[in-house]
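RESIDUES AND SHAPES:
===
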Amino acid sequence: MLRRLRRALRKRAFERKLAALPALLERKQNAEAEAAASEALLIGEEVFGEEAAELTTPLYVIAAARLSAGHTEDALAACTRAIRIAEALAGAPTEPRLPKLYELAAAIHERAGRLDATIRLYRRLLAGYERMRSPDEAAIADVAGRLGLLLGKQKQTAEAELLLARALTTTERVFGARSRPAAEALYNLGTVLAAAGRRDDAARSLRRAIGILTETDARTVDSLLALAQHNLATLVEAEGRADEAEDLYRRALAAHAGATGADPPEIRPTLVRLGNLLEAKGRVDEALSLYDRALPLAEAELGPDHAVTLGIRAFREAAQHKRPPAR
């Protein structure tokens, strides 16, 4: 009797600990979340056993908190244990706990720079979603898109294009062809095609994305729109259409900055590319003002001795030498 009562009390304590975890994660109180999850894990091991399904939630929170703190190997250890428990349950690989665990493990490997391991996990995740009796098409589109981008980084362009095209088709079916998720899928496809040298195809995808975003989204600051405009500008600039490229770079700057006043860090590449373009056009003073905006952003983000920072400084010095002498 006393043993059953103690077990019931410990189970209730476990449930209270679990109930507190979402709020701690939402407030980004990672240290507190890890501590509470670790306490829940100890109680759960005592009440349910060391391989019980109930342990996957505290293990997930521990892994997520450790990843946020930059402790990738410790995060991976907790996540791997949770995956092992979930995979042993009936219904694997479609066990409902697995998708989030695979996503977290993939994020850990990606943070550590292990792209091959990240790709393997996304393949397992995609296969698991596809085997479900009622597949979540939005989730399939998301995973196919992420996997396509990773394969694009690995120069596996053919498979990357197939996955990104699938992500686009599925996204259009789920959210609509003129939706923001569709624009993001088009942007991703255009980015991979551009990296593969498929400029015309890339430009078409990016123009479609820009058209959707400017037509359907009234937000003042839009980093996705800015990125699409920047990437399209680099393509048209490479084709010698300098005036169109200048217009796109300026529109990208406006979409990035909005009404916030101070330059956000994301604006730096566009400032530099537009500065290079204006300098080539002979508009040196305008180029210098852009380099002057880009340089402190690079110094703050990357440090004064980073190659990018040194490159901007070199652009600035070269442009200064092109200025006519003062009279």
Notes: The longest helix spans residues 2-26. The chain has a mean pLDDT of 91. The chain is about 80% helix and 0% strand. Residues 218-327 form a domain with the Serine Threonine Protein Phosphatase 5, Tetratricopeptide repeat fold (CATH 1.25.40.10).
